Amino acid sequence: MKLRIDVVTLFPQAIEPYVKSAILGRAQEKGMVKIKVHNLRSFTLDRYRTVDDYPFGGGPGMVLKPEPLWRAVKFIENYTSSAPRVILTSPQGSLFSQKKALELAQEKHLLFLCGRYQGVDERVITLTGAEELSIGDYILSGGELAALVMIEATVRLIPGVLGDEESIKVDSFYQGEFGPPQFTRPRVFQGLEVPEILLSGNHALIEEWRKRKAQEKTARVRPELLSVAKDRQE
Ligand code: SAH
Prior knowledge:
The protein contains 9 helices and 9 strands. By secondary structure, the chain is of the alpha/beta class. It has 2 domains: 153 residues, SPOUT methyltransferase, trefoil knot domain (Alpha/beta knot, 3-Layer(aba) Sandwich); 62 residues, Orthogonal Bundle (Trp Operon Repressor, Chain A), CATH 1.10.1270.
């Protein structure tokens, strides 16, 4: 097994079917990755299985209590006898990116904590050393989708997980910029023809054309990515 991933959530049913499907499912069947989902509620000790409480200082909503999250992290550390890299899904984290995914794909053990409500008690971050990661500047109702996004982006980068490793390199962001436009059959669709050059069989010219198209679109839609691409080539 190359990577073990634990996920702590109040909604295991939101995570489980997805990680059993498609590429994540196959990566697990092939024994390359193991993804284990834990219900946060099973780390409560009181009879009401309380996971949240009112915020100190007042204000709307509820906050996830520190004890169950802390116990979940300790439990996972103990029974796997490894020191996972702990990630807290959070809109206040640094932005997740393809670069971060490549970094996570090098790890042996990741542990994702999914927040809910108004978020988690701040002391969980201090005590577990969790790294806060965000998937974008918007608010989700919970960390489940964010964890799934990061898990999927990471696992597909582990060598052997995708059928064709080369496909990773032609994807957007691998070189910093977008990937090229893609066409498949039929050659003419609704009167629109596939660009002639793609049928030429001249690989050098095709590469040049793809690079140019990719750069044009990146410059138009996300100009700030081009400086990243330039840095990477230097
Ligand atoms: N009150 C918090 C937001 C809580 S949203 C704040 O203002 O920062 C509830 C939970 O959803 C968070 O604890 C986090 O786990 C998850 N979440 C929401 N938006 C997210 C995002 N953009 N990226 C990652 N996780 C997010």
